[in-house]
Model the fold of this input.
Amino acid sequence: MIVHIPENSDFSIYNIPFGIFSTTDRSPRAGVAIGEHILDLVAVAKLEVFDFNTAVLEKNTLNDFIDLGKPITNKVRTDIQSWLKDDTSVLAGRPELFVKQSEAQMHLPVSIGDYTDFYSSIEHATNVGKMFRDPENALLPNWRHIPVGYHGRASSIMVSDVAVHRPKGQTVPNGADQPIFGPSARVDFELEMGFITGKNTKLGSSVSTSEADDYIFGLVLLNDWSARDIQKWEYVPLGPFLAKNFASHISPWIVTLEALEPFKVAGPKQEPEVLPYLQYNGQKNYDVNLSVSITPEGSEEKTVCNSNLKYMYWNMAQQLAHHTVNGCNIKVGDLYGSGTISGKDENSYGSMLELAWMGTKPLKMNDGSERKFINDGDTVTMRGFAEKEGKRVGFGAVSAKILPAKT
Done:
């Protein structure tokens, strides 16, 4: 192997995820993560080993590279895998091609034109329905028939490690009948994964479930922050607004759909049978282990959730098919959130709303403090990886700190 890859690294030879990085002497550019290093694709391109216009690798987003299409981007990935395993390849003896991840700054990997967030975990939707509606009829009548979603705000999506201020808005205190204005007291994380589209469509066309894989470039971890008290007041009749659009964070490395191919699994049985345009063949869910931790300022990290992408009731192919069935066009770099990923066990719930059950079951941190929601100074970190038969493909982490509301 050209570079050392630590055991249990998320960025194994089986992964080769794409991202945008910079250093003190390298402008933002395309790279791939391998072990603790980044392979600088602009530097590699100077060796004249690629058969496409490599100017796209010098851009500060991956959009133009992704737009080249999977025949090219997949070949780049498999070529790199071959070169890394060959001690006589073009990468051998060229340390200038590699940068330590610890010495690099990561950037938002794509320019996100549009962002859609789904609501596709039946466990999460049921839990929320029990809390806010009728426990005996937790799911709304449409939930088992369509992948419910809403359009989010792309401008406030940030890469990991960018801190965010506590949002302000209208809330209604318990027992009050009029709203007040001020900082949210119920800032929450939402454990999600997002997929990024890699092909454009024309207005009026649609993508079928059988075509969806060709249109999905790869996946990232997604923390879709929520302000639950603002959300409770505003979400009827048109759904989330200020409670969601203040911030979302994604992990910096895009793991390709092809890297996740070995980890496909069957999804939950869907009842009643879905309409023909949402039906699909084969396995469309993915076995990706997910975790969430909270690190209070000045204290130790505490894992509060262990979940898995395989729990999703509605899969990505169905989400994309539903999104486009009305003729809505999609573009390279668009982001689609899975919705909060919760499992059946209490420790697999993907939000504080569920884990602390609306504040009635506070979680204890390692320093003895308790959390009903996220406090100022808390850092929330999400991690994810898939592992099978000695192959590990991971996402690294998405992490962010909550700062006090601006005055």
